[in-house]
Amino acid sequence: MTDRLVVVGASHAGCRLAFAAREFGFAGEIVLIGAEPTPPYQRPPLSKSYLKGATPLAAILLKSESAFHEAGIALRLGTPVTTIDRAARTVALASGETITWSRLALTTGARVRRLDVPGADLAGVFHMRDLADANALGAALPAATRAVVVGGGFIGLEAAAVLRGLGLAVTVLEAADRLAARAFPPFLSAWLKTLHESRGVDVRLGTQLREIVGRDGRVAAVALSGGGEIACDLVVVGIGVVPADDLARDAGVAVD
């Protein structure tokens, strides 16, 4: 069998692992497989400088295509892995291709936690995780004037800052009693709230969404669990992520 390292997940971790394998002397074939059509890129700018148009795509790519070529790393992009056969040592791709491996690494990361309320599938509701999400939200901004951001963590607050900076009226809904409670101590949460409010963001703590109200298939308002509605053109959801461990589980890999 050909000595081949297959890395499933063209994430930051997957990209770094592939290049590290070369740097540490792995001489076999390396194949990096990604579900997205774009080469590996940095995700943090998506909800900040990339979203507001200040940073082009080329600036957030982790490596140039020539760097992959020079390192002998083959890219399979835009075609996710559907199954892993550990006994046969193969991965099956959505494209129909099957690739054998002698070594396999899973760097599938996480996927966005979806909002589970009535109206979550309306046009004008955006989650923020990948390049396609950022592009879709960016395309909707010129026609929008009022936004509701669901979630007062990093992604939600970054998106809120960008949208407010672009002139939209922005309301942040956070179910907890303070912002970014999982990441920051209370005094920093309070500072963040004051900062965003000083820039015109309406921050509502202890507030949950009951429903997204639509009109003609598009977002028109959000209804709050405690009563009342907030009119808006778009809703940005930033309520965390869940592990993308389906492939590993289906392949019988122990997952905590």
Automatic annotation (TrEMBL):
Gene Ontology MF terms in the entry: oxidoreductase activity, acting on NAD(P)H
Q: Give the UniProt keywords, A-Z.
A: FAD, Flavoprotein, Oxidoreductase
Segments crossing the lipid bilayer:
none
* Cofactor entry: FAD
Per the record, its GO cellular-component terms are: cytoplasm
Name a Pfam family for this protein.
Answer: Pyr_redox_2
Q: Where is the signal peptide?
A: none
| Span of domain FAD/NAD(P)-binding | 4-255
Which top-rank group of organisms is this from? Bacteria
Instruction: Decide whether keyword Oxidoreductase is in the record.
Output: yes
Q: Does the keyword Nuclease apply?
A: no
Q: Which PANTHER family match?
A: APOPTOSIS-INDUCING FACTOR 1, RIESKE DOMAIN-CONTAINING PROTEIN-RELATED
Q: What is this protein called?
A: FAD/NAD(P)-binding domain-containing protein
This chain's source organism reads Rhodoplanes roseus
